[in-house]
Amino acid sequence: MKNSDDTNKTRVNILEFQLGDGWNVKPAGGSSGEAYIAWMGERKIFLKRNSSPFLAVLSAEGIVPKLLWTKRLENGDVITAQKWVNSRELRAKDMGERQVAELLSKIHSSAELLDMFQRIGNKPRTPELIVEELENCYHNLEEKHPAMADAICYLKEELQYVSPAKMVVCHGDMNHNNWIVNSRGDLYLIDWDSASVRDPAYDIGLLLHEYIPEKEWTAWLDHYGLSLTETLKTKMNWYVVSHALQQALEHQRKNDLLTASQWITYLQTASFKTTAEKKREQ
């Protein structure tokens, strides 16, 4: 059986052959292992295997660096080439900038992106579907934690306050490393492997809870184009809890107990105060 190093060498050789004489290719790193940098002299491009099928729309709207070409290889793999951008990743402290909120709003407002995503058959991630999948995953675990059960109870009780959800294309991974800015100040959001059709509160909630102090949420959302209502707060907390539970369940299933325990610890400190409880306190 080939190990990962052998597989990478084979893929590099295939890519160099496809590009032609003079081109050099090396892995670009990253968790997926599917990205590569190719160069010949001063020319440089970014390559990816089996990237998002709506990369062309993302490129046309200026959300990712320009798509140069797409090729299908004999083995069925699809290779995309994008313009190389001399850029830097955003730092955690940069996530509060107006440009981040405006680009995320542009993505969530893109009818073309949503249409493309729906045409390729992606099922919307409704709150009801999310709860059903999380509950099934929880019941299939051999070792269960009370914090997981508490989270499921909270998510089920709050369903009536987060549905029906507005559906948009969400990126799904708001890590600051996925936001890059070039020397001219153009901002891009890359790595669309986790994208799905969801309520925009999913992306917004993960970003705000991770990076932005709560006292600054109103100003950030003004740049996005939303008001900080109690309904939005409820939705954001619901999606943050559901995401944390999904991560805990997934890592527990993979027997990655250290990472699972970190997400369980997060769940133990999360707010499970329901809308009904808040109303009683008023």
Automatic annotation (TrEMBL):
One of its GO terms (molecular function) is kinase activity. The keyword Iron does not apply. The keyword Transcription does not apply. Coiled coil: none annotated. Residues 31-225 form the Aminoglycoside phosphotransferase domain. It comes from the Bacteria. Keywords: Kinase, Transferase. PANTHER family: CELL CYCLE REGULATOR CCRZ (PTHR40086:SF1), PHOSPHOTRANSFERASE YTMP-RELATED (PTHR40086). This is Thiamine kinase-like enzyme. It comes from Sinobaca qinghaiensis. The lineage of its organism: Bacteria, Bacillati, Bacillota, Bacilli, Bacillales.
